[in-house]
Amino acid sequence: MIGPVLGAQTLLGLAVFLAVIGLAISRPKGLNEAWPAAGGVAALLALGLLSRADLVGAARETAGVLLFLFGMMLLSTALEMAGVFAWAASYAVRASGGSSRRLLVNVFILGAVVTALLSLDVTVIILTPVVYATVLALRVDPLPYLYACTFVANTGSLVFPMSNLTNLLIVDRLRVPFWQFSRIMAFPEVAAVAANVAIFLWVFRDRLPRMLPAATSFPTTAGPAGTRFFKVSLVIFGFVLAALFLAGLAERPLWPVALTGGAALAVAAATTGGREPREIAAGISWPLFPFVWGMATIVRGIEHAGLTTGIAGLILGHAAGPLGAVAITGATAALGANVFNNIPMALVMLAVLVGAPRARIPLLTASALAGLNIGPALTTVGSLATMLWLTFARRQGVEVPALEYLRVSVVTVPLVLVAALAALVLGELLR
Amino acid sequence: MRRVLVAVSGLLLSEFLHRVLSQLDWADAALYLLHVVDTRPLGEFGLAAGSLPARAGRAAARLREMGALGAEAGQRMLGEAETTATPRLPAGAAIRRMQHTGVPEQEIIAAAYEIGADLIVLGAAEDPAEPPPPAGPHGPPRFPHRQLSPTVRYVVDHAPCDVLLLYAGPRKE
Question: Taking CB atoms and an 8 Å limit, are B11 and A213 in contact across chains?
Fold first, then answer.
């Protein structure tokens, strides 16, 4: 099946794809990801695997997603400035009633809500440091809580299109309606997060003392909650969320809502919050935009080279029964997300799913995304990104014990993935 | 002179120190207060954040902030510990503050070798809240069980000297 498609052009296309991903992950000399993506596009153009029409096509395909992302980045940056995340984390502590286990569950719930509504990036980049600071103030072992944040960012990113860039890219392109997607994914999301909580309560059982030692000395009123900026931000955020769900229900594009809401919150940050526009701009990951466009273009190139056909055959050949289709799609996506990183793998899976029978698309999309979103939590072990991170950390004088990460993620990721996929199949059978 | 290494982790800090100070004879002894900034949470954060596309720059900045925050929290605890200890030690007794960065259990052992410690004092978080259950139908009675943290177990296993383990809460009688 794969044999006939592995011509010289296919191999060259594959080599370019791998080189781009290698450079994007390793970032030699701090090179940002946009450059390898642009280089890859240029190489595929030169090889004749891409035409100018592909560049425009990829831009048109990703424009809505990128505008949405831009709006959401403005929004989350302003929310952070307003102290919303710090307030939420201190609420999680107060609601734990002095129990370290309940605090772990609360961190999971908070992380799952932030991930579902604002995306996994926000949970990792913004919420995790806030939780770290909060737990340090409590003077308990921060390790379980940090793991909770970084894991729930993956396992809790299944439910809404905006929870993960992979969801956005695939759902947007395949035109799976917002609510249909969320309805299919709700059950796997709950199953994945619940499985993750249960596993962590067990894995970290000897790091979670029964009582939080400093719970009594923790300030009961969070500082930022009183400011006008905080209140204004929460109100705008509430409106944005309501508008996003309504837009989803009406099957309208989400990006105008995100862009308007993000702009409104940025204005609030600059006026009521007294922040410099420069500070707000620093919260935007600018290289992400050319990177996503570049990768979407490159995947078109490898599609032309016939590379995605092999994977498509493998998956669609098993698409007859829901169980086989779900298992093989989820596993392929999870594996690929670990080897290649999840954004490029999402685009590869997208190219595969486009060719699937229409009736099968929602289920296959859901299983691919379960794999793409949960799988990368394993990345903390085996992938290229991890190897490079460990080397980087060692160069900074921080000895990171790789086995410690392996112990946690090897136990957790497969079980959580199985729980999510089982919930997906169960939901499908019950329908 | 006896060198006593006390690992400070914030766990009921002042109660812990009062007990350390009252249980030992401090004539001709030096107190070494050690705090370790645990790099594993930072590593886990960096790993997760560093693998997100186009986020490595911000991740690195956040990582530095978090590292500084951890070191600062530790310094605050060491300061508190020293303030608690000073008036209770005999005049002229030596107190030294140490801060290491790494995996706490390994750093505690490293510090013990470094100063040539005669005793390591640790706190353990768990207090067995339940009273002992009645003896089972078979075999000996099952006494309440403590779950010692991996840090404590490692130090006990690897210490080059005696180890004194103090439990966090008062035992329920």
Answer: yes
Residue with token string 């698409």: A319
Percentage of chain B beyond pLDDT 90 is: 38
Q: In what order do the strands lie in the sheet with B119-124?
A: B94-102, B29-38, B2-7, B119-124, B162-167
Q: Which of A276, A200, A265 is nearest to A238 (CA)?
A: A265
Inside any domain, residue A114 = yes
DSSP 8-state secondary structure symbol assigned to residue A99? B
Which chain A residue lies closest to B146 (C-alpha atoms)? A206
The answer as to whether A19 is a domain residue is no
Domain assignment present for residue A117? The answer is yes
B contacts of A32 (beta carbons < 8 Å): 54, 57
Q: Give every CB contact of residue A36 below 8 A, 6+ residues apart in sequence.
A: A19, A20, A21, A23, A24, A294
Chain A residues lying within 8 Å of B147, measured CB to CB: 205-206
Chain pair A-B, CB pairs under 8 angstroms: 147
The pLDDT score that the predictor gives to residue A216 is 47
pLDDT value at residue A286: 86
| Beta strands B2-7 and B119-124, pairing class | parallel
Would you place residue A5 in the very low, low, confident or very high pLDDT band (cuts 50, 70, 90)?
very low
Q: Is residue A27 part of a domain?
A: no
pTM higher than 0.80, yes or no? yes
User: From the list A150, A207, A210, which residue is nearest B48 (CB)?
Assistant: A150
pLDDT tens, residue by residue, A83-136: 999 999 999 998 998 888 999 999 999 999 999 999 888 998 899 999 999 998
Residues of chain A contacting B69 with CB distance shorter than 8 Å: 132-133, 136
Token digits for A125?
A: 């980049």
H helices present in A139-254, as ranges: 143-155, 165-174, 178-203, 228-249
Non-local (6+) Cβ contacts of A62 within 8 A are A169, A292, A293, A296
A120, A149, A287: residue with CB nearest B54 = A287
Task: Find which of B13, B14, B16, B40 to mutate to test the A interface (most A CBs within 10 Å of its CB).
Answer: B40
In this complex, which of B53, B77, B127 lies closest to A291 when CB atoms are compared?
A: B53
Q: Return the pLDDT at B107.
A: 95
- B44 vs A414, residue with greater confidence: A414
Q: CB–CB of A146 and B69 under 8 A?
A: no
Cα–Cα dist A43/B110, whole Å: 52
The total number of structural domains that make up chain A: 1
pLDDT of residue B172: 39
Contact A128 B38 (CB under 8 A): no
The minimum CA-CA distance between A206 and chain B, rounded to whole Å, is 5
C-alpha distance from residue B10 to each of A101, A103, A330, B112 (Å):
18, 18, 43, 19
Whether B45 and A129 lie within 8 Å, measured CB to CB: yes
Contacting residues of A for B73, CB less than 8 Å apart: 136-137, 139
Please report residues of A whose CB lies closer than 8 A to that of B77.
Answer: 139
| pLDDT for the residue B108 | 96
- The parent domain of residue A311 ranges over 33-43+50-430
B171 pLDDT band (50/70/90 cuts)? very low
Higher pLDDT, B138 or A87: A87
Residue scoring higher pLDDT (A337 or B120) = B120
